[in-house]
Each structure stands twice: as C-alpha cells, then as structure tokens.
Write a structure and sequence with these properties.
The chain is an alpha+beta fold. It is 64% helix and 16% strand. Antitoxin component of a type II toxin-antitoxin (TA) system.
C-alpha cells in the first residue's frame, strides 16, 4: 500500500486507477499529512461489504461457530458419507 499526498494523486489519478483495477494495489491518500481517503478496487470494496454483511448476520455467525465446534470435536462427514447421502437424496430416499 502506497501513501501519497492528494496533490500527487490528483496528478496521477488515471495511473493510480489503472493500478488499482488491474493489480489490486491500494493507495492511502493524505491531505495535510494525514490519511484522508483510500483508493481500492470495486471488487475489493464489494468483498469487504459482503464480509461485513456476513459478520453482522447473527444466524450465519452462530452456524459458523457451531461448524467450527463440530469440526474441532470430530463431528464431521467424510467424502464417502457425503456422496452416499447425496445419492439417497437424489433417489428420494430419506
């Protein structure tokens, strides 16, 4: 991540935008020597928004915690068990 003053960012905006879009670089843009703005790609922004959405959903987080506990205690299924269950469901057998 590069830190650049706003005057430099203004002069190089097309180059910075290309780097952000193509190489997923990040830039912190300063104003009067203090961090003021971040320049990130749309893909990275959308990923952050999705992560925040997941983290703020209490049901999803509860399921994630339970999954981690199940994994830690060995309460899991191996590939053959999953395939067998999927095959039963495909055939309509409960």
């Amino acid at each position: 991540m590069e830190i650049i003053p706003i005057t430099e960012a203004n002069a190089r905006i097309a180059e910075l935008a290309d780097r952000v879009a193509r190489e997923h670089d990040r830039f912190t843009i300063t104003r009067n020597g203090r961090a003021d703005v971040m320049l990130i790609s749309v893909a990275e922004y959308e990923s952050m928004q999705e992560t925040l959405e997941i983290l703020s959903d209490s049901d999803t987080m509860s399921e994630l915690r339970q999954s981690k506990e199940d994994f830690a205690s060995g309460d899991t299924f191996d590939v053959d068990e999953v395939r067998a269950e999927l095959e039963k469901r495909r055939r309509g057998v409960a």
